[in-house]
Amino acid sequence: GVLFLKHVHSDDDIFLNTRNILISSYKNYVSFYYLKIVYIVFNISTYKVSFNID
Fold first, then answer.
1. Cα separations in angstroms, 39 against 2, 28, 44, 49
2. What is the pLDDT of residue 37?
3. Threshold 0.90, pTM exceeds
4. Over the stretch 1-54, which tens digit does the pLDDT of each residue have?
5. How many structural domains compose the chain?
6. Dist. CA 9–CA 18, nearest whole Å
């Protein structure tokens, strides 16, 4: 706890924190769209299968 209290945020720490937040939000964004694309492709493929069956 003492080390944590003594720790002072420098500009580098703020920059790293901001960068980490940006990277994590970018990953969430990409994974969200990846899931969306997979969902759409899955729906299209199941639609084609049902269409072929008919």
1. 50, 16, 9, 15
2. 92
3. no
4. 455 555 555 667 778 888 888 888 888 888 889 999 999 888 888 777 666 655
5. 1
6. 13
Q: Tell me which amino acid residue 14 is.
A: I
CA distance 12 to 25: 20
Q: Indicate if the alpha-carbon torsion angle 29, 30, 31, 35 is positive or negative.
A: positive
Distance in angstroms between the alpha carbons of the first and the last residue of the chain: 68
Domain containing 38 equals 1-53
Q: How far is CA 20 from the centre of its chain?
A: 12
Task: Specify the length of the chain in residues.
Answer: 54
